[in-house]
Write a structure and sequence with these properties.
The complex is a heterotrimer. By secondary structure, chain A is an alpha/beta fold. Chain A is 67% helix and 9% strand. Chain C has a single domain, classed as STAS domain (Transcription Regulator spoIIAA). In chain C, strands 1-2-3-4-5 form a five-stranded mixed sheet. In chain C, a hairpin with a 2-residue loop joins strand 1 and strand 2. The chains are: A alpha/beta, B alpha+beta, C alpha/beta.
Chain lengths: 284, 142, 127
């Protein structure tokens, strides 16, 4: 059964596109500035084309489930999220096509009340489904972006540096919860492999408090490094932290601790039978 | 923590647990599913290890049973693995005690159940004397 | 059944576990290693697990057993090449293998054991 809607779009594709773009701009208002006319036209043209092909192939009933059409909607939603459009502004993209199509249907079927109401009903249902889909995809792509940013932020905040050949330093800043411990551990252990390091200094100068849980996380990191064959020193233990550790009865079993990073570094060099000597100026 | 609401089972696979070699098969099957949903390497290793512990429990203490491995999706479109291990063994009278590290009736270190719980996002155990044991674990991707 | 090859290198035994072991194979490895320590009068045992993508509590316990038994037989055991993801999982599992010496790779492990590939270093010391 040939879809009336499909042939309608086919016959008037370019006028429809212009009318739709008008509706979009009006609905978006000042938000329309976030996107160039060209971008808006390309996106609209693609969707209209996909819609026509879907209608020709599957009719209005099944159109809203056609993967080819959904793919175009996905792409548009992702683009709009990246451009900073709100969910409703993104939905406007689809819903404004309803207005354009409605005008077109009125011109075409204005005299045939039965056909007009049937086609209008089809258009409404189809575009509502498409709009809802766009909305959902928008939400999903925004969730993805947030998740990715959180991950990136965590990774950014835990650098691992090579202090000396085979000696790594891991300055921890901020609180250490179980999620962060995972990332810290992973960064440290990956660096251990990459740098072939047999000693790592974990500096906790920037950790505000050390309670039983934080200590547990630190010990897990130390244990995991040891399982791979790398020893750890914990440095940067401020007086208050030393007090809390004792007060809470936290056991740092067998872990070498130093008050400062420089102390830990000196220990590490000594451990390797190395020392730093002042050049007294005898050599030229 | 209330259990997550699963909105869809994307894939479902049943594996028999009868012999020690089935434990290796479970590890390989779980790895394949974890790779399929793009789980990161550390989470992959954790869920495979947890599955290995539970499959061995079912084979050794439960006298064999069945495993169900599923790829699931929640309402927020997150993918995860849900693994159930069901045996027809003597069951566990005191689950609380069985979950404690170091508790063992067999030859293991007694880290099986507690360890599997720590390696998973969610853990559920159902057991009674003479009624077998069913353990379900879930791990979300990312 | 597969067997895991045990190589002799000087006064040390070298095992590289390359297959996903089932429990029987793990036990067989423990048994053959302990007999080889006696048979070859080995002073050191190096176990390379860089190919293993998981170590569960059974395999972990087997490794700890090997180290403990080797110690009674006066041989030192070094476990080398554990992957980061495996180390993180073992710690979460509650298995930190305190009785086992570890090293990053085979080279470092051999240095710890004072084993040279030709087995000459210990012989040279006697001159």
């Amino acid at each position: 059964m040939p879809s009336k809607l499909a042939s309608l779009i086919e016959q008037h594709e370019s006028e429809l596109l212009d009318e739709w773009l008008e509706h979009q701009k009006r609905a978006l208002g000042s938000a329309a500035q976030r996107i160039s006319d060209g971008q808006m036209r390309t996106a609209s043209q693609r969707l209209l084309g996909a819609l026509r092909m879907t209608l020709q192939a599957h009719g209005p009933e099944a159109a809203a489930k056609d993967p080819a059409l959904l793919q175009v909607l996905d792409a548009v939603s992702h683009e709009r999220v990246a451009q900073g459009f709100s969910p409703s502004e993104t939905a406007v993209f689809v819903f404004s096509l309803k207005e354009a199509l409605y005008d077109r249907l009125q011109k075409e079927f204005g005299n045939d009340a039965a056909a007009f109401s049937k086609e209008t009903w089809d258009v409404t249902r189809l575009l509502d489904n498409m709009g809802l889909y766009t909305f959902e995809t928008y939400q999903k792509s925004r969730d993805d972006i947030i998740r990715r940013q959180q991950q990136e932020l965590l990774e950014l905040s835990t650098p691992v540096m090579e202090l000396w050949d085979g000696i790594l330093a891991l300055p921890l800043i901020g609180t250490l919860d179980s999620g962060r411990t995972q990332i810290v551990m992973q960064n440290l252990l990956d660096a251990v492999v990459a740098k072939n390091a047999d000693l790592a200094i974990i500096d906790i100068t920037g950790v505000p408090t050390v309670d039983t849980l934080v200590a547990q996380h630190l010990l897990k990191t130390v244990s995991a490094a040891r399982l791979m064959g790398t020893d750890c020193i914990i440095s940067g233990i401020r007086p208050q932290i030393a007090q809390t550790i004792i007060h809470l009865g936290v056991e740092l079993q067998g872990v070498v601790t130093k008050a400062s990073l420089s102390g830990a570094f000196a220990y590490a060099l000594e451990h390797r039978k190395m020392s730093i000597v002042k050049n007294s100026g005898i050599a030229t | 923590m209330p259990p997550s609401i699963i909105s869809e089972t994307v894939k479902n696979q049943a594996v028999k647990l009868n012999a020690a070699s089935d434990v290796v098969m479970i590890r390989q099957a779980v790895r394949a599913l974890a790779v399929e949903i793009g789980m990161n390497l550390v989470d992959q290793t954790k869920i495979i290890t947890a599955a290995s512990e539970l499959a061995r429990n079912a084979v050794i203490h439960g006298g064999g049973g069945d495993a169900t491995l599923e790829i699931v999706r929640d309402a927020a479109n997150r993918l995860g693995l849900r693994l159930s291990f069901e045996d027809r063994g003597p069951g566990i009278a005191d689950i609380q005690r069985a979950m404690t590290d170091g508790y063992t009736t067999g030859t293991g270190l007694g880290l099986g159940l507690g360890g599997a719980r720590r390696l998973s996002s969610e853990f559920h155990i159902q057991s009674a004397p003479e009624q077998g044991t069913k353990v379900t674990i879930l791990k979300w991707k990312g | 059944m597969d067997r895991i090859p045990i190589l002799k290198m000087g006064e040390c035994l070298l095992v590289s576990i390359q297959v996903d072991m089932d429990d029987d194979l793990a036990l067989a490895l423990r048994d053959s290693l302990t007999s080889r320590i006696v048979q070859d009068k080995a002073r050191g045992v190096l176990i390379d697990i860089s190919s293993l993508d998981i170590v569960d509590s059974f395999i972990g316990r087997m490794l700890a057993n090997i180290a403990a038994m080797a110690k009674i037989l006066d041989a030192q055991t070094v476990l080398v090449g554990m992957r980061p993801s495996v180390a993180m999982t073992l710690v979460e599992l509650g298995l930190s293998l305190p009785g086992i010496q570890t090293a990053l790779n085979v080279d470092r492990g051999l240095k710890l054991l004072h084993c040279s590939p030709q087995g000459e270093s210990s012989a040279a010391k006697h001159h």
